[in-house]
Specification:
The complex is a heterotrimer of chains A (284), B (284) and C (329). Chain A contains 14 helices and no strands. Chain A has 284 residues and is an all-alpha fold. In chain A, α2 packs across α14. By secondary structure, chain C is an alpha/beta fold. A four-stranded mixed sheet of chain C has the order 2-1-3-10, sandwiched between helices. Chain C has a four-stranded mixed sheet with strand order 6-7-5-8. The chains are: A mainly alpha (284), B mainly alpha (284), C alpha/beta (329). Chains in contact: A-B, A-C, B-C.
């Protein structure tokens, strides 16, 4: 069904779009307008509002004690959550990709579960488990352990929300990898760890990094789940997104946007990395 | 030393001789149970503290019903809006070249990378009476902030990446052969699109819609600032859960949470089924 | 990470030779600015006096919600809430001594306030007094009595007015029911209600703490809003207390006690007046007398009795508020 001579791509494109550059330009124009309004404008607004009080106010907002503590808390949380979820992601992807076992599809569905849960519910479940009136509440109180209104609660809620990202990213990559290389290494006498480190890892590294970036972005920015478990104590249990909310509710708009601009910068870095890694991943 | 028959049985069962099955699956299941299954179990258990009658009374009370209607309704409408615009963006990014294309492509993921609270305060600032866009719309009688329209805008923002990123790979796979074939048979550009290309995209569009829908149902951070939170008018279901928590009505909060979760799970199932069909269609 | 560890270490370390001590003050919603000033003043005072550095963590929210949070494990060293019942609740759970009221002067209330109306500039809906609030078409903003202390004072002020003016509790209940029919949304705290009224532009009149109304004028300009003083209002007495169990655990009892006693000092009372709270100390009260409108004030005791009785009758589950409030009609 092919034409006798292959048409040059340009001609096909032009033909495909109703013979004219008009249609093409209109579509591009519409798309760009939509993107500009919905994506670019908000992004730009964050920075404009952040610097509304001048550079001095921007810097002083960010160097306030509570701001620094919020940043510290966010960093602490991701330094626990991301490695844990990565470890899980690798383990789960390995189990799913390299073996067949009963309940495999169920496991895949269960891993996707947190993605369908509202962030507020993600926080709620931990309050129900560990809050003073929760199931383990009295036990925790007796042993003087604090989960809700403290770091562990925030870590748990954030881990729940970002649970799936690394696993979801890695599973298809490992599946595409197949098992031959690892089995070959096995016959050559390598043990499990060596197989993973020398054979599997190099093949999945871009996918792994991609998944880590996604997990990290979501973990840093999580709001609803953390709002429910944190107790909103300034300087103690406010992560940066919570701190932004607090400032905004206190009419301190400039400071709120100053902290937001940090998160927006991180978002931009994430986007760049995603773009770069996405291409590397596709190339493999 | 493992005897040959045992080894064969093991391979037959698991489909692979690679070591680490027990470790990877065991760890995965443990982590999954501790972090996801048990907390969700607590949710179900807590709502079971209510008798079926009480449960129904909570969930069917007018205010809860109104909030569920808003959360699901706004999510549906926003995701529906995202379908044509997402298709447009994906089309333009895959089929055409233009300056800034890489930038736009990277920016599509902004709603995903940007924390929801930052999105929330930014959109509110833009769309409030004295915001850049709000001040243009107010004189012609369109109020966006603190109305259901505002909720919709926030959800459109959140859902965009889901549609675009689902359609893009499908479009890329599609290639030009099919279109070329149709053109040589004398079809116009529009006919080609309508009869040939679009039907092939429908599965991906449905998937994209479902993903955006699932995500925006439970959305909290980006909506709670712009909505105004008036019961029966602009109060989303996650906020109602938070309100109940603040009044320490744990059982009521759990009841609403379970209801939302149940509906979300049905959707997740639907997504997986659609994805299976999409995969079969495209011959993955 | 290090700053959190330092904080934890400071909390756990013993009193006498610790260089740094931190107090967690769990307060009600509108007091952010007040305690920013008071905390700075006390830190300086304490440093000069003892050489020890005190820093503060503040938590703000609806008074009832905050009390429940403390009961749930929020480790407040001091609580500075909107009404006595909320502290009683904490005492009932054994976290603080049941004779807390007498531990500080004036029944542990270093400042008082009352309830006034905040309206848009020019008072377009001509709201003059309580009976204007039940007119059809008027939207009233007041927070949720289940979580907010200010909300309960608002409710009781309205009830007290109606009981006197209309004669008796039955008429008062009808009045308050009509009032809440005009309330479109209940925020969880007084500050949230202010945000709804001021920033979101919802409602015609805000029932506000007096200090919150003045603050709104200061923050947003007296060209946008004005205060309407009702014919009668309630004397609101927000109390303070240290939380015995927590200060024992943290080793912060001396500092906490000194902090709360400091609230009665001339310096603190001056800051209190400056922040639009009515000071207790006669000298400060006199200094700031002119800035506060003259209102006919009744006390809780005169009209309702004790807080325990009032809370049980009106605000607990199944109480009068639950019978009255049906949202969205």
């Amino acid at each position: 069904m092919r034409p006798a001579l292959p048409l040059p791509r340009q001609a096909v494109r032009r033909r495909a779009k109703g013979q004219s550059a008009w249609v093409r330009l209109t579509l591009i124009g519409l798309a760009l307008a939509f993107a500009a309004l919905l994506l670019v404008l908000p992004l730009v607004t964050v920075f404009i509002e952040a610097f509304r009080g001048g550079l001095g106010k921007y810097i002083s907002s960010l160097s306030e004690r509570d701001a620094l503590r919020a940043i510290g808390l966010t960093l602490t949380v991701i330094s626990i959550v991301v490695p844990l979820n990565t470890l899980f992601g690798i383990a789960a992807a390995w189990a799913i990709a390299k073996y067949k076992f009963p309940g495999r599809s169920l496991l895949i569905s269960l891993i996707e579960l947190p993605l369908a849960v509202s962030p507020v519910i993600s926080g709620l479940v931990f309050v129900l488990l560990f809050g003073r009136q929760g199931f383990l509440g009295p036990w925790l109180a007796d042993h003087d352990l604090k989960i809700i209104f403290a770091l562990p609660g925030i870590v748990l809620a954030t881990a729940f929300v970002t649970f799936s990202y690394v696993a979801r990213e890695l599973t298809p990559v490992m599946q595409a990898q197949g098992q031959e290389e690892e089995e070959a290494a096995l016959t050559l006498g390598a043990n499990g760890l060596q197989i993973f480190w020398r054979v599997t890892l190099p093949g999945i590294k871009w996918g792994l990094l991609y998944g880590i970036i996604m997990c990290n972005a979501r973990a840093m920015g999580e709001f609803g789940a953390v709002a429910v478990v944190s107790g909103h104590i300034r300087g103690l249990t406010t992560t940066v997104p919570l701190y932004v909310e607090m400032l905004y509710n206190e009419y301190n708009t400039v400071a709120a946007f100053a902290s937001s601009s940090l998160l927006a910068l991180l978002a931009l870095v994430t986007l760049v990395l995603k773009s770069v890694l996405g291409r590397k991943k596709g190339a493999l | 030393m493992v005897t040959a028959p045992t080894r064969t049985r093991k391979i037959a069962a698991r489909g692979s001789i690679l070591p680490g099955f027990g470790l990877s699956l065991g760890f995965s299941l443990l982590y999954l149970s501790l972090l996801v299954l048990i907390p969700l179990g607590a949710l179900v258990l807590k709502s079971a503290h209510l008798s079926p009658g009480e449960f129904w009374a909570v969930v069917s009370s007018p205010r809860v019903v109104a909030s569920l209607q808003l959360s699901f309704g706004a999510a549906a409408i926003a995701s529906l809006i995202n379908v044509p615009f997402g298709l447009l963006l994906a089309w333009v990014l895959v089929r055409y070249d233009f300056p800034g294309k890489r930038l736009v492509d990277a920016l599509i993921d902004l709603p995903f990378a940007l924390p929801t609270a930052v999105a929330g305060i930014t959109l509110t600032t833009l769309l409030a009476k004295n915001g850049w866009i709000g001040s243009l719309l107010e004189p012609i009688g369109i109020k966006v902030a603190y109305t259901q329209l505002g909720v919709g805008v926030a959800l459109v923002f959140i859902g965009i990446p889901f549609v675009v990123r689902t359609v893009q790979p499908v479009l890329e796979e599609l290639g030009h052969e099919v279109e070329e074939a149709a053109l040589t048979l004398g079809a116009s550009g529009w006919q080609t699109f309508q009869r040939v290309v679009f039907p092939l995209l429908i599965p991906a569009l449905i998937t994209g819609f479902s993903l955006a829908f699932a995500r925006t149902i439970g959305e909290y951070g980006s909506v709670v600032f712009i909505s105004g939170n008036l019961p029966f008018k602009t109060e989303i279901a996650p906020l109602l859960i938070v309100t109940k928590l603040q009044q320490f009505d744990y059982a009521g909060a759990a009841a609403i949470g379970v209801t939302m979760l149940a509906i979300s799970l049905v959707l997740l199932l639907a997504i997986n089924l659609v994805q299976a069909r999409v995969a079969r269609r495209l011959g993955e | 990470m290090r700053s959190i560890l330092t904080l934890l270490t400071a909390l756990v370390a013993s009193l006498a030779f610790a260089q740094n001590v931190t107090l967690l003050n769990v307060s009600y919603d509108p007091t952010r600015e007040l305690y920013t000033d008071l905390n700075a003043a006390f830190a300086k005072y304490w440093k000069d006096k003892t050489g020890q550095t005190v820093s503060f963590n503040q938590s703000h929210g609806g008074s009832g919600a905050q009390a429940r949070a403390v009961i749930d494990g929020l480790e407040a060293d001091v609580v500075t809430l909107a009404l006595a019942y909320d502290i009683d609740q904490i005492a009932d759970k054994g976290l603080l001594s049941t004779d807390w009221v007498k531990r500080l002067p004036y029944n542990s209330t270093p400042y008082t306030s009352t309830v006034v109306f905040l309206v848009r500039k020019g008072n377009p809906k001509a709201v003059k007094d309580w009976d204007d609030l039940i007119k059809p078409g008027i939207q009233v903003i007041t927070p949720n009595p289940k979580t907010s202390g200010g909300a309960r004072w608002n409710f009781l002020a309205a009830w007290g007015y109606a009981k006197r003016k209309l004669g008796g509790d039955e008429k008062a209940q009808e009045y308050v029911r009509a009032l809440y029919k005009n309330v479109p949304v209940l925020d969880s705290g007084a500050r949230g209600a202010t945000t709804t009224f001021v920033e979101r532009g919802i409602g015609d009149v805000l029932l506000a703490w007096e200090n919150e109304a003045f603050l709104a004028l200061k923050q947003f300009g007296s060209d946008k809003f004005e205060i309407v003083v009702p014919s009668v209002s309630i004397l609101a007495e927000p109390p303070v207390a240290w939380v015995d169990k927590n200060v024992a655990k943290h080793g912060t009892l001396p500092v906490a006690q000194a902090y709360l006693n400091f609230l009665y000092s001339a310096q603190a009372q001056d800051l209190i007046g400056k922040n639009y709270y009515r000071p207790r100390l006669p000298s400060a009260a006199q200094k700031y007398a002119a800035q506060f409108p003259k209102i006919n004030l009744f006390t809780l005791k005169q009209v309702f009795g004790t807080w325990r009785e009032t809370q049980a009758k009106y605000f607990n589950d199944g109480g009068i508020f639950d019978k009255i409030y049906q949202p969205g009609q």
